[in-house]
Design a protein that fits this description.
mainly alpha; single chain
């Protein structure tokens, strides 16, 4: 491979980037290029900077292809999410709708119930953790519901029983020893 050379402008640009950045990777990459320009071998550069010779090759290649922007680490693209706008809009609509209005026998959405309903509606299913992350991105939060019998019990009988219990608690028990 041909020897590495940098023009005076390239040298100055790399030196300016190296001393103006707070990103350790950018600093290391600029240093690799400057050391390459003074004819250091990739093995000695790798040894001095604590990286592999393959990293030196990758940095040189990225700089040749993209210039100064090649000094920055590129985030891998990753897989495209199935949670597109065509999924997220029905999700928002369903979360803001009480389940009993959709014909369900429960009054609070759980992640599993929501996932099952959305799978029927959109044909897309996620793990519960991923659905929680999507809901968080959409601005929704989860709390555990407090299960009470309010509305399902006879409130008058419940109030009467509570008063009776309070009076029983105040009376001393027959088996209790009392001091005279």
């Amino acid at each position: 491979m041909a020897a590495w050379t940098l023009s005076d402008q390239e040298w100055e640009a790399l030196d300016n980037v190296r001393f103006s950045t707070s990103d350790a990777t950018v600093f290391r990459n600029a240093t690799i290029l400057l050391m390459s320009a003074v004819r250091r071998s990739k093995f000695s550069i790798a040894h001095d900077l604590g990286c592999s010779p393959a990293t030196v090759d990758n940095v040189r290649k990225a700089y040749r292809e993209r210039g100064l922007s090649g000094l920055q680490r590129r985030k891998p693209q990753g897989r495209i999410s199935l949670a597109t706008t065509t999924y997220r809009q029905p999700l928002r609509d369903v979360v803001t709708t009480p389940p009993h209005t959709l014909g369900y026998g429960f009054s609070v959405w759980s992640v599993a119930r929501l996932n099952a309903h959305l799978k029927k509606q959109t044909g897309i299913s996620f793990s519960e953790d991923q659905l929680r992350r999507i809901l968080h991105q959409e601005g929704f939060s989860f709390q555990r519901p407090k299960h009470t019998m309010r509305g399902k019990r006879d409130e008058a009988s419940f109030t009467r029983a509570q008063k009776e219990l309070r009076t029983l608690k105040k009376k001393p028990a027959a088996t209790m020893l009392t001091l005279l």
